[in-house]
Write a structure and sequence with these properties.
Length: 791
């Protein structure tokens, strides 16, 4: 989501000239492999439990027992190998003869068991390296793919845990430089003039002739040594080395139910939500969360789940680091500028929701004011990273205990003193304010370093602010779906709006954290607050639920819902700005070990042809021709999406080549040109991954309304969307108020018009546009008035 801003808004943060000495590249490659092996060692026990999958530790005992039974029946399944192993063991005398036989059988069983598991893993890895199924037309399945599915089912086992498939996932391939350059030139052709394109093509050919082969060699070396040839560099150079503020630039947000608030009691909603989040953590630790499977069969990498909880991004002078703890039994809470440490566990384990509600109510009822400068302390986490790193060093000397309580928490909780969410009086403005409060707030009421901040508003509305470096949106989205469903449907609330159960008066009071702030930190807080308020004030957010149709109608048109929206966005943006632009859509590469994301360049020649046809006069272009061009644009987008998912995208490969060229001090004008480009439109679909948790037919209002992220640059848009059941799409749009070229609400109107115009090309959607607007709707905005929230 917000990665587009970090990746291309200001370019990756590279080492300085002093760091990029000769040999720095080989050192970086060595460190990449070292980090991979350290992660494997740190996960040793999990790897043992899940890594033997699709076998199990009990299968060794079964195999050993079978060998012992064969010996009892005077059979030798080892063909003499057990006797040879027995001869190699020390001779402990006649009385231990039987013990030597048992040890020899155990060693043989272990070797045979390990060989069988290795064979299973190798077979499964080879099977999972097949991506032909991705390239086949929707609804059509070839014989090789059917055979592949059957074999995957045979080798996949029956009850996988979260990390069961990690050792069987293939590594992300390094595409050929020729293919990447060809695809890149194809992607920029629609947005460049003939002269600019000829110049760019010349740079590309020079790159292929002079630098590409050497840079490719180093990338292949890294792909053999490290778990993934690009992901760790992506995390380090795009995120951790960036010195920009996290607020708006890197964080993104997730919303509550759009139309429903299960309880208006702030402390009760906080109690249930925190309990649900910690239940998710409990399932995560036990690996009870099922791995995500495409087509119900193809597993995705689960590595990003490891750092959801107990994680903080610690600022540094040159680069940040992710600090992850094995466990944490408390949450850090912020209310009216005061910080508290709230324990989440007692002698009997995880506190029940009613006890957590009691603790949060105690925080809300505490009359003590915030101390001097404490109220705005969290603004430091919204400051440029080097400023915050310097101030944090001063805090470590004077307020180490309070700082540790915050950074060592399971996650951060902000009890916001203001209400939020959809309001009857002004639905459109209230949704925009809700999104802005989650993305930026007041600049001093979120701890942006934590992996995520749970935000609970005074009227019981929830939200999530997520730091981006540790994982991508589908991971936090999976957690958020579980949280909303669990706290609302499983835990529930009593008739008076409180958590079910009884308070526990014997619990100790939440611990108030005290900060001894030196004078130089006072100045840093003031500067950070000024910058955060300016950035927050310049951020324009717009949320609108498009309810005229959704995924259901698009399916009836036999089209990909994501591609349908992406092509419509091209039409909307062209109407908004009068020109085409590079468009960034995030796609996942989790088909590979430790894969993260890839870019789908949605502004294609086919999409541009369709937009021109839509804007042409009816007399020159008919609807049948427009429909044909639209289908071509959708097919092209689907092909790009599948290529990105299968490791054959453009941007991550070019990014890695750029990093190599910089570390080698090898000038590459083509790569410099690529990474100086500006993306005026960054888009992302928020996937619904656990639809079974929600009853969209009987309770259509109880679905997540998705989330959003900040604009990618000063004159660009950030657009995310989520399909809410089969009948609606919610859009989240952001831009800069200071820009004279963008307007989030204006783009929202164009998006609605574009979706209706595209739908009208199909028989299923021809009646929509005529019936969705009345004579006065134009002035009211595209979405009209959303349904009033339930009390």
């Amino acid at each position: 989501m917000a990665e587009a801003h970090q990746a291309v808004g200001s370019g990756p943060a590279l080492p300085s000239g002093a760091e990029a000495a000769p040999g720095a590249l080989l050192q970086e490659i060595y460190l990449s492999g070292l980090r991979s092996w350290k992660r494997h060692l740190a996960r040793f026990w999990n790897d043992f439990l899940a890594g033997v999958f699709p076998a199990s530790p009990l299968s060794w005992l079964f195999l050993f027992s079978a060998i012992q039974l064969a010996w009892f029946l005077q059979l030798d399944p080892s063909l003499g190998l057990t006797e040879k192993i027995k001869e190699l063991l020390p001779d402990w005398g006649g009385q231990h003869h039987r013990l030597r036989g048992v040890l020899a059988a155990a060693l043989f069983a272990s070797c045979l068991w390990g060989a069988l598991i290795f064979t299973l893993h190798l077979a499964l890895r080879l099977l999972l390296s097949y991506h032909g199924w991705l390239l086949e037309p929707h609804g059509a399945m070839s014989s090789p793919t059917k055979t592949w599915l059957a074999l995957v089912r045979i080798f996949s086992g029956r009850r996988p845990m979260l990390f069961s498939y990690q050792r069987s996932l293939p590594r992300q391939p390094v595409p050929s430089a020729q293919d990447t350059v060809r695809k890149y030139l194809e992607s920029v052709r629609p947005v460049l003039s003939d002269e600019d394109f000829a110049w760019t093509a010349g740079l590309a050919q020079e790159f292929l002739r002079l630098q590409a082969a050497l840079l490719q060699w180093y990338l292949r070396l890294k792909s053999w040594w490290a778990s993934n040839y690009v992901s760790d560099w992506w995390e380090e150079f795009v995120y951790l080395r960036s010195r920009n503020p996290l607020m708006v630039n890197s964080n993104y947000y997730m919303m509550d139910f759009l139309y429903v608030t299960p309880t208006p009691v702030q402390a009760a909603r906080a109690g249930n939500a925190v309990h649900a989040l910690l239940l998710y953590r409990q399932r995560l630790e036990r690996q009870e969360i099922l791995p995500t499977l495409l087509m119900g069969m193809r597993p995705l990498c689960s590595a990003q789940y490891e750092k959801i909880f107990n994680t903080t991004r610690v600022p540094g002078a040159r680069k940040d680091r992710l600090r992850h703890l094995g466990d944490s039994r408390h949450v850090a809470v912020l209310h009216r500028g005061r910080f508290f440490r709230v324990a989440t566990h007692g002698p009997g384990g995880l506190l029940p929701p009613r006890a957590l509600e009691q603790q949060f109510q105690r925080v809300l009822d505490d009359p003590a004011p915030a101390s001097a400068h404490e109220e705005h302390l969290a603004a430091l986490t919204a400051a440029p990273r080097d400023v915050w790193a310097q101030a944090r060093r001063a805090l470590q000397g004077r307020a180490a205990e309070a700082l540790e309580a915050v950074e060592g928490a399971a996650f951060f909780v902000s009890l916001d003193p203001e209400p939020a969410g959809l309001a009857r009086e002004d639905p459109a403005a209230s949704l925009d304010a809700y999104a802005h409060a989650l993305l930026a707030g007041r600049g001093h009421d979120r701890w942006y370093d934590k992996s995520f901040t749970l935000i609970v508003f005074s009227n019981g509305k929830l939200g999530l602010s997520v730091e981006h470096s540790w994982a991508d949106c589908p991971i936090s989205g999976h957690m958020w779906e579980f949280t909303l469903a669990t706290e609302c449907f499983q835990l529930g609330y009593s008739v008076d709006g409180h958590c079910k159960g009884h308070p526990e008066p014997s619990l100790p009071q939440p611990q108030r954290l005290h900060w001894d702030l030196p004078d130089k930190v006072h100045r840093s807080i003031s500067l950070a607050l000024r910058g955060a308020r300016a950035l927050s004030g310049d951020t324009d957010c717009h949320v609108f639920p498009f309810s005229h149709f959704g995924k259901g109608l698009i399916k009836r048109c036999r089209l990909s819902s994501d591609s349908f929206v992406q092509v419509a966005l091209q039409l909307a943006h062209f109407r908004d700005r009068g020109r085409f632009c590079l468009t960034y859509e995030s796609a996942m590469t989790r088909l590979f070990l430790e894969g993260r994301t890839e870019t789908v360049r949605s502004c294609t020649r086919e999409a541009c042809d369709f937009v021109r046809a839509m804007e042409a006069q009816e007399a020159t272009v008919g609807d049948s021709q427009r429909l044909s061009l639209f289908r071509l644009a959708v097919d092209k987008h689907q092909a790009l999406l599948k290529a990105a998912m299968s490791g054959q995208g453009v941007d991550r490969h070019l990014f890695a080549l750029y990093i190599v060229s910089q570390l080698l001090h090898l000038p590459a004008p083509f790569l410099d040109q690529v990474h100086s480009e500006q993306w005026q439109l960054a888009t992302s679909q928020i996937p619904v991954q656990q639809a079974h948790l929600f009853d969209v037919h009987n309770c259509p209002d109880y679905v997540s309304s998705g989330g959003g992220f900040g604009p990618v640059n000063d004159h660009g848009y950030g657009v995310s969307y989520i399909f809410m059941g089969d009948g609606a799409i919610t859009f989240h749009i952001s831009s800069k108020k200071s820009s004279t070229k963008t307007d989030s609400r204006r783009l929202g109107r164009h998006i609605e018009d574009a979706l209706l115009d595209v739908a009208s090309l199909f028989p299923e959607g021809q009646r929509l546009k005529r019936g969705c607007r009345g004579p006065g709707d134009e002035a009211a905005g595209p979405q009209g008035t959303p349904a009033a929230p339930q009390p």
